[in-house]
Request: fold
Amino acid sequence: MHPMLNTAVKAARRAASIINRASFDIDRVKVSTKSQNDFVTEVDQAAEQAIIEVLRTAYPDHGILAEESGNSPNLTAETENVWIIDPLDGTTNFIHGFPQYCVSIALQQKGQITQAVVYDPTRNDLFTATKGAGAYLNEKRIRVSRRDKMAEALIGTGFPFRGTDSLDEYMKMFKVMTEKCAGLRRPGAAALDLAYVAAGRLDGFFEKGLQPWDAAAGSLLVSEAGGIVADFKGESDYLYKGKVIAGTPKIFAQMVNLLSPYA
Reply:
């Protein structure tokens, strides 16, 4: 395992231990509202600080982009190494005791994601990838599914939740996709959805309104597992635009064709 990836795994496990302890008594967890239907807990914040501490100890000069604490003071447009962190993707699931959430950590080097960890503490599923070296689940190589027909594909997505302005457009996309695929699922943690595409548990995924920390690690998992990730136009600069389509090569192409009108 690449040394930087090993450090990221250590950080993810440290965060997961905090999350797991809190999950045994969720009613005691303090919850705050960032915006409509967008929550943060003391667990998110503690897990993020644990991750940052591990990464800072190993790589003090690296920049950090984290969901709760934002940009580190040393993060500039010229920073070559940037850790992109979501300490608890699926916070709403977590505070309801719905076991679909994860820790997501990625390293961006000179604009490219090169290391990725998505860790599901409820199932002890550790998804990892190093650019050019493949994607793994619990140290076993994973590949995207072999399905190539949309009518047979199981597709993951995410609903708008920070407001209802885009709900009408989403319902149109929902109708288009539901009519064409075998099933549409909305588990509620984008990083884990992308990891599931990489592992062949989902054949594709699409969502609008994502932040870099939602998609950074999962996108590398998908590409290293033989899939494709892009925006709704099929272009590669999706990470900071918030519009993501991922899937097996043939399912991806069909999804872009169906969803490009909503780009």
Observations:
- The chain has a mean pLDDT of 93.
- The first helix runs from residue 3 to 23.
